[in-house]
Amino acid sequence: APANANPVLPAAESLNMESSRMAIMKKGPWQVYFHYGQLRVSHSQAEALNFEAFYEKTDITHDPSTVGYGSPLHKEFYSKAYAHNVPLVDGIGQEGWNPGTLIAFAPDGTVARVSASQPAYRKNAQAERELVIRGSDLIDTVTIATTDKKPHELGLLFQIQGKAELPGSFQPDSSLANGTGPLAGFSYWKEVRSAPYTDRAAFVVTYPDGRKMQLTFTLPGAFTVTHALAPDAPPKRRETFYVRVPGEKAVFKTTITPLKAAAVSTGEPVLPGETVR
Known about the structure:
Blueprint: E1 15-17, E2 22-27, E3 30-35, E4 50-55, E5 58-61, H1 72-78, E6 87-89, E7 101-106, E8 112-122, E9 125-134, E10 137-146, E11 152-160, E12 163-166, E13 171-172, E14 190-206, E15 212-231, E16 237-247, E17 249-258, H2 262-266, E18 274-275
Antiparallel strand pairs: 1-2, 2-3, 3-4, 4-5, 6-11, 7-8, 8-9, 9-10, 10-17, 11-16, 12-14, 12-18, 13-14, 14-15, 15-16, 15-17
């Protein structure tokens, strides 16, 4: 029989799927997909603790999948940390694969919450992520700690499907342009620019459907924010942020807020900027 032209889709709901190490949180206008680990090595990528998010029908950030396995883009970019929203240690993401540990899954309370850890994110580092939906805000907190008692550059990647407004303090940055070996993913970035910040950095992001969100990074002390154009699902590109700081441990807090609620959420005005591209 011919398929129904207007099928009734099931309602989105929160769900923890143990076998795929993925949790879904649906609360209010937000849908969040959290990939916190992997049970087997097959098809594994350096993507543990990655998440995707949608606000109503607006694609805030997504996983771009990959290309043909024989392409250098698959080996050096899409299967590595650079295509995901994940922490980095010295510019490198997850090492190997790991099931991860689900710490909490409480999607039905006044504040929806999911958290998980990767105790062996790298041989010398452990990582943890908590995603919270509170009111109109999506709040992401990533903790990364090294275990070898040596200084490192700790960082967090965040991909966006919209256009960010950047202030004039962002200047061209060639320090990541010639990445090779484990850092080869950086070589696929274009229009790389960086700026220094202290404690807080906020940006207005405009999405293709016209929705505006405020993206706020909070990190105690001085840190660097790098912005670039990175590969998305080919042939598209999207904007990416790389927040980084030297040290042995760092806690990165990222808040995504609909612009109309930004003043209530942060208590501070949105930073002015110049539209990228």
